């Protein structure tokens, strides 16, 4: 798809390598303005938050191993549940995708760096203090907030100081997201290489540009919701307090107007990664590129009109239920287009199954299961039955773990030779994939049955009839956790420290400008913009 003119791109990338001083030591990281360094910082931050959130998940599963209270008081259990959600959404998945964006977008569009290099640095360094606020709230007098990651009042109005810490952390992370989004949009719209029209851009750039618009649209909405919580808690307002004329359900409307586009913010960049990996290992161009772009935009637009499908049990009128039910089903259409296109790309391709491709195919298989359970939840009479049960937990872990996380792993294995200059260990990567795929399904598939049988979420105890499935889920969750630690020590650290040196083009089917620069990508790339024919 992208061929470069007579220009020798790799040489252009090297031309001024020694002309600029590359900072060393702590300065290189603390004052980083290079998109690759900032991308690396984001990826390390998100991986550490992923492990922290994973520990919280394993504490939850340890408590649910048997009925009765095993290890934690219900209040502490609820803090674990809440913080697991907040840490994984705002600390792990979103920053990981921003790390990929920082690393790959300038390389894919032929830009020398991100549009606003210093703002890029600032938007990263907002995150560690926010993470300290979030995780540090466990050590306050009243502990962390235990209101659930959705922070519904009246519970969130009754929490201790940990709730204020969470509100402050969400504000700071939201500011970081907005600044990162502005940077991504400006880079893609203004800094593309000559000849790279919008419809020649890699799908990853398209999905991220659309995601960035979504972030700018919905992050201020979340800020408004948590600010109203804050003033209700401390300044005597009654936005969500029925005794003062407020309405706790109004919070749900405002929160989910942010929260539903948010779930697409966490999956659209994943679609972009998969759309890069599958053509590379099928050795065919992406099937239906234009339809993929339009489908991505359709998902983004439709995501604003489905928020109340999270609220079918709040007593909305039947017309409202019908509207949100049909709108939610409609969003399955562009998603189906994407899955069709990926399968059509693989059709009759000369496929090979290296780890990036395994994670991409695993993504399609398991994400589709999550998509179907989402369609089932869109049917309001069914949703009213399974609302706030483990069926919902199963659904959103299928789209977030098997969706976002598997795509992130796919992208990591695909691009890590370009990042570090070393090939990862293929056998260890495949072990990581199979361990993750099998343990994930064994952990989360039984939760569909638990939910259909009526086991509610966010409880530290449960009746004895749910024991067997919970035992299976807990054991498998620990295996999944061990698989990620295996990834850290058997794949990630060896790929950084050394190994087989990676060529500039490690995959013979890969397309795109990022493969025209040497591996590892030099500190300065594309100082002379490449020309696209």
Keywords:
533 residues; mainly alpha; Cytochrome C Oxidase, Chain A; 0% strand; translocase
Protein described:
The N and C termini lie close together (9 Å). Helix 3 packs parallel to helix 5. This protein has a single domain, classed as Cytochrome c oxidase-like, subunit I domain (Cytochrome C Oxidase, Chain A). The protein has 533 residues and is mainly alpha-helical. Its EC number is 7.1.1.9. It catalyses: 4 Fe(II)-[cytochrome c] + O2 + 8 H(+)(in) = 4 Fe(III)-[cytochrome c] + 2 H2O + 4 H(+)(out).
Give a brief rundown of this model.
Helix content is 67%, strand content 0%. With 533 residues, the chain is mainly α. Helix 6 packs antiparallel against helix 8 and helix 8 packs antiparallel against helix 9.
Rough outline: globular
Provide the structure class.
mainly alpha
Q: Number of helical runs? A: 19
Mean pLDDT: 94
Residue windows where pLDDT falls under 50 for at least 5 positions = 1-19
CATH class, named Mainly Alpha
Instruction: State the total count of DSSP E strands.
Output: 0
CATH superfamily: Cytochrome c oxidase-like, subunit I domain
Q: Return the CATH topology.
A: Cytochrome C Oxidase, Chain A
- Largest sheet descriptor: none
Alpha carbon gap, first and last residue: 9 Å
Q: Provide the helix percentage.
A: 55-70%
- Radius of gyration equals 23 Å
Q: Which range does the strand content fall in? A: under 5%
Give the CATH architecture: Up-down Bundle
Total individual domains: 1
Order of helices and strands: HHHHHHHHHHHHHHHHHHH
Keywords: Cell membrane, Copper, Electron transport, Heme, Iron, Membrane, Metal-binding, Respiratory chain, Translocase, Transmembrane, Transmembrane helix, Transport
EC number: 7.1.1.9
Catalytic activity: 4 Fe(II)-[cytochrome c] + O2 + 8 H(+)(in) = 4 Fe(III)-[cytochrome c] + 2 H2O + 4 H(+)(out)
Pathway: Energy metabolism; oxidative phosphorylation
